[in-house]
Amino acid sequence: MKKHNPLVISLIAVVIGLLFAFGLVAITGRNPFDLLTALVRSMTGFNMQKPDAGINPMFVLNWFKYSVPMILTGLSVAFAYRTGLFNIGGEGQFIVGGTAAAFVALCVDLPPIIHPIACLLAAAAAGAVWGFLPGLLKAYRGINEVVICIMLNYSAMYICNMLTRGLLPIDPNTNARTISIPDSAVLKQVTTATASQFNWGFLAAIVGLVIFWFIIEKTTFGFSLKATGFNKEAARFAGMKVERNIILSMMISGAFCGVAGALLVLGEYKYGRIYTGFDNYGFDGISIALVGAANAVGVFFAGMLFSLLKSASGNLQIFQIPSEIAELVQAIIIYLVAIQYAIILVLDKIDFKGFKKKREPKSIEGGDA
Amino acid sequence: MKKVLKMALASLMAVTTLTACSQPAEEENPGTETPTEEKISIGFVTDMGGINDHSFNETSYKGIQEYAAEAGLVEGTDYSYLQSDSETDYMPNLSTYAEEGVDLIAAAGFLFADAITEAAQAYPDQKMLIIDVDSLDPEMTPNVQQAVFAEHEGSYLVGVVAGLRAKNEGYDAVGFVMGQESVTMEKFWAGYQQGVWSVYPECQIYYDNANNFAAPEVGKSLAGKQYNSGAYIIFHAAGATGNGVISEAQERAMNGEDVWVIGVDTDQYAQGYVDEAQTKSIILTSMMKRVDTASYNAAKAVADGTFEGGVVRYTLADNGVGLPEENPNLTEEELAAVEEATQKIVSGEVVVSETAVNNDLTIGD
């Protein structure tokens, strides 16, 4: 079995997933061209069925808007994964990040630009604390981080709701959120030309991508994290501080999710949230890290793809295609990536046949595989 | 490797070119036009509960469907809905409809307040209807109609029913399950309390907040908790979460327990059958909140050209809230008590407060 680039496998999974979606739409008696139109419109703002309307940039910006938190949560899961950890606690870290940002936004008075940055730093710190707990228990007590993370998701939601209701000023009109955060803390829209809430928070995703790439690929710390991920005992034998690596990895992972949660509070909600459930960005991060093969470039593209499917939901429904199709495509892609050995086997077989064809044309047996 | 990618690309192209040719012809619907009214298009944006929540979203959309049936509008092309999976979808969904140029955008729920304000500023000419919000600044949102309901008045009536039934059957407690703490939801809780205590002052009322409108499993466990603690009747004001309350009561009723649920928003009687012959339902009655009237009226007003922004109130006096017309599970005495309470509220003899008087009657949390 040859070594295949994991991103190529993801790409094949994506193509098969999309083909499946087109097939399914056709089978259920809808028009696959509508599906294509919806996807193209979400991606480019161009409506192929109304070419005269021109390009509507709002749809593109909405796609970007969805991509920012998804890339960050994808980076979060990918970072922990490189150290051999499974951070399923993204939801909790996301919530504590959002809450920390709301606290700094509402309780601290700072000038514009500095204010949102302070909020984001607080969010990163809060997310890091929420990653620290499972990291600590994993490193020194060997407790499975998955179980701790899942429990901490709920703990985060209820503790944050309690703190928000108890300490922050609640909006009297709805009694279901805090008052609006001051203008100085709001992440402004990049352009007010469209109604899209795409805001300057996207810079945080770019910084996140660079930090991820730099730590993992360019530093000794990153190398020792990866070594811990490959083989903990070998890393320990080589003199690496395995426990420290596990804790730091979970903290950095948590910080990414914390920032993602804060971006939504500062740029889209513009008030402190009282959470009634999970936003699923943390869980989306798991699929994105998986499809993106847990590296910075892969996570970027996987994040863009999954956010496109999310932002296409509205357009799909406009063109009378159930938005569940988008979720179905995601699910198929994840399944295919998860069973990537099946794809590798098929790839090997095809390459092998081609090889045979060239060298030994006579030995090919009849019938197609 | 390259070969595989080429094959995949080629097949993708083949699919898309093939499908490009297979667009169906536009459906024509002659003979259904109404001459007096302009044919309009309507977009409805749901909240997280979804369009089939048997409650708030479904009823609001039903009003649009009713209007559409009268005006000959076609679902999909003339009117449709967009599902929101989280609050981050509100603004994109609202602006998708605005970009589509629909004549009226409707959204149900106080959670939409911020998104609607933002959308109203981005699209100042777009007519919008928001249900359950009356706090928007009319200066900033001149084209937004804010429809609110006197939930406390309707809840008072079902409170009277619950109190009377519990008293006559010798039980000392009833329950209430709420979807989320908010100003609107408190009106349900407040009215229910006052109604129960107006006929049965010693009655204990259990209170639980599911903190979620879309979690039937939470509703089910809260209902179980309240029934175990001795609640005889539970009034749920929890959207899709309340479906869990109903299924818990159904299971108990099938096991011979004597329990009841009071439905919300729509007449939920048909949801509560406990036998296959559909003769017995555990839905005692329902607190009807005629959100369908609000969306129907708004759609009609847009077509007539009489649509106006600002707050519109629907009360017990104009049938905005109340009990269903048919109540097979209610006795003559209960119906008479409801009728009496209705008259007192409409005449102003009884003023139902919007503020809950006592939040200490909680169990568990």
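Chain B is about 40% helix and 15% strand.
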